[in-house]
Amino acid sequence: MEMFNVKLDSLNGHGRIFSLELLSPKLALLFSATTLAALISNFQSYAGFSLHVESGKTYMLRLINAALNEELFFKIAGHQLTVVEVDASYTKPFKTDTIFIAPGQTTNALLTADQDTGKYLIAISPFMDTIVAVDNQTAIGTLRYEGTHPFTPTSLTAMPPTNATPVTTSFVDSLRSLNSKQYPAKVPLTIDHSLLLAIGVGVNPCATCVNGSRVVADINNVSFVLPVTALLQAHYYKISGVYTNDFPANPPNPYNYTGAGPANMQTTNGTKVYRLGYNSTVQVLFQGTGIIAPESHPTHLHGFNFYAVGKGLGNFDSEKDPKKFNLVDPVERNTLSVPTSGWAAIRFRADNPGVWFLHCHLEVHTTWGLKMAFLVENGEGPSQSLPPPPSDLPKC
Ligand SMILES: [Cu+2]
């Protein structure tokens, strides 16, 4: 299997757009870090993924992390990348040699073929800065300049260590909204709903499990249970008994979130939504927790872009930390990694009526219950109201 799924579009004759779907290294070409060098020494016969470029041209790489459970590093030997967009929102351009991208995120970067004619390694490898096991594999491809002799050795690069937190921090800190006259950053400055969501894992009794218990995941101690009837359908047709409106805006039992955690790690099950009035402004403070192990959670909101106004390590300090929020040009996106043993704050305006999931984009965590939903009420008139389901909506 290939490392990437690739689509090509032409870019006004001067270069091309490459859409690269990054798969999990395990699903892609399997090369452990230790065998990578040996494989590359026989690289002449390697016939894997190859990206063809012409000297002097500039290309746009549209990257999406399509892996289920791995945050990834992406690198091309000998080349800088200029990041210009994330999650379909423009950023202030910045140069980097390493892109950090979480499942569900997209990143567009410009690549100029400004090195000597030859072959250069393209590689992805996982990021994991906690004790949770990860497949430490590197998947590789080749950037190949036109006119390269077939037996030219490939220029190599070293990937960051698996636990390279500083590389992720530096990348995330470089992301800023364009905030131009044409594309202003419309960060909500007053807040109608302020939520503190503690996200992580827990342990619940399980009569049929080997040890009598199983690991679950939760937000504010609620492990989300998917209903049989769709939430949106229940909301539109006013079907009762599908969900409740009592999703808690704060952890029910506050504790030292990034410390050892409470002795009782049990969660409650529920299908709960948090209601928002049309056009209300929302701040969500995601607080990572250390139960079993702290972990980076790539958290995704449906239905909206949000502004990532702040982040930090340890427990959020409601006195000091808001003073450091960036309310001028914070990056606008729809998925962000809440740092391991840390917190992240977002703001958005609830101007899209309907029911919208908020969940960890690691498949393992979302299926364990690390999700909730916002129910955004209608405003005034049809343009601010949820449209009816299409007439051909399949009926189960
Ligand atoms: Cu997670």
UniProtKB/TrEMBL annotation:
It is found in: Secreted, Extracellular space, Apoplast. It is an enzyme of class 1 (oxidoreductase). Gene3D superfamilies: Cupredoxins - blue copper proteins. Its cofactor is Cu cation. GO terms for cellular component: apoplast. Keywords: Apoplast, Copper, Glycoprotein, Lignin degradation, Metal-binding, Oxidoreductase, Repeat, Secreted. Pfam families: Cu-oxidase, Cu-oxidase_2. CDD domains: CuRO_3_LCC_plant. Binds 4 Cu cations per monomer. Residues 45-147, 247-379 form the Plastocyanin-like domain. One of its GO terms (molecular function) is copper ion binding. InterPro entries: Cu-oxidase_2nd (IPR001117), Cu-oxidase_C (IPR011706), Cu-oxidase_fam (IPR045087), Cu_oxidase_CS (IPR033138), Cu_oxidase_Cu_BS (IPR002355), Cupredoxin (IPR008972), CuRO_3_LCC (IPR034289), Laccase (IPR017761). The keyword Cell cycle does not apply. PROSITE patterns: MULTICOPPER_OXIDASE1 (PS00079), MULTICOPPER_OXIDASE2 (PS00080). Its EC number is 1.10.3.2. It catalyses: 4 hydroquinone + O2 = 4 benzosemiquinone + 2 H2O. GO terms for biological process: lignin catabolic process. Belongs to the multicopper oxidase family. Lignin degradation and detoxification of lignin-derived products. This is Laccase. It comes from Escallonia herrerae. The lineage of its organism: Eukaryota, Viridiplantae, Streptophyta, Embryophyta, Tracheophyta.
